[in-house]
Amino acid sequence: MIATVIKSTGSWYEVRKDSGEVMQCRLKGKFKLDDKRITNPIAVGDKVVIAKEDKGDNTWVISEIKPRENYIVRKAIKKSEHAHILAANIDQAVLIATLAMPRTSLGFIDRFLVTAEAYRIPAVILWNKSDLLKPDHLSVIDELNEIYNHLGYNTSLISSLKTTDIDSVRSIFSGKTTLIAGHSGVGKTTFLNALIPALNQKTSAISSFANKGVHTTTFAEMFIMDNKSFVIDTPGIKELGLIEIEEDELSHYFPEMRALFGKCKFHNCTHHHEPKCAVIEAVQKGEIAESRYLSYLSMYEDEESHR
């Protein structure tokens, strides 16, 4: 019997059959040894085969994981050489970002976009909490939209507290399985409650002292908008460590750098200090945003330090 994993708590999994029935399953031990560098052998979004453990027992187990169409990972928090799968079999990834209460750094945004690019997953940026923004914030949003829209990323400015704003982006999620990610406190849960009113998920206040959010979501979980639209919520991410990306491949996941592939003097150009580097020249001419180039250097140095 095939089902979709909709929640993972580490030891038990909630799975949903095509009929809509939700069941509790546990994992057979053999999967725990398949890949020692993955902290979670099964992720939300996985298609799995389930079966009764014993004929006379009502306990269900996951006996097989079907091949994944894709997945998106991050570096594990406690094991830097391990990967943690955020979600599998997704159509797009949506980043909820904010310029205030708390502030999402451009480095974090670019790491998220690079991760999505690496797994060929379309990405969208939703700037949340528009109701808290001052005029100078709005001008920054305009500048950032110009950068990211030019690269092919859709962006929208919203407030999760405004029904009209939620309605304006609802079509983004229609007919798709979407991963939603962001720092703690950016309003993911409030956004989800507005997008799918029946959820009524618990939210937490922002700490005004630290200007950081309180973790509300503990485990990744898939929610149902309708029969063809699903949203996967993930725990708030403090830092997004890259994994499974080699330093010599990193520039391929920056669309503006990928467009210059083969135009540098040296075929193995790192875009750091080499003469006649097409990327550096594009930055100097303003054709590549300086913020994006700085993000690239930061990621490259991180990967180099872990060699």
Summarize the structure.
The chain has 307 residues and is α/β, with parallel strands linked by helices. The chain is 24% helix and 24% strand.
General description of the model:
The protein has 307 residues and is of the alpha/beta class. The chain folds into three domains: 64 residues, OB fold (Dihydrolipoamide Acetyltransferase, E2P), CATH 2.40.50.140; 163 residues, Rossmann fold (3-Layer(aba) Sandwich); 56 residues, Probable gtpase engc, domain 3 (Ribonucleotide Reductase Protein R1, domain 1), CATH 1.10.40. Helices cover 24% and strands 24% of the residues. The chain has a six-stranded mixed β-sheet, with helices on both faces. A five-stranded mixed barrel has the order 1-2-3-5-4. Strands 6-7 form a two-stranded antiparallel ribbon. Strand 1 and strand 2 form a beta hairpin. About 4% of the residues have low confidence.
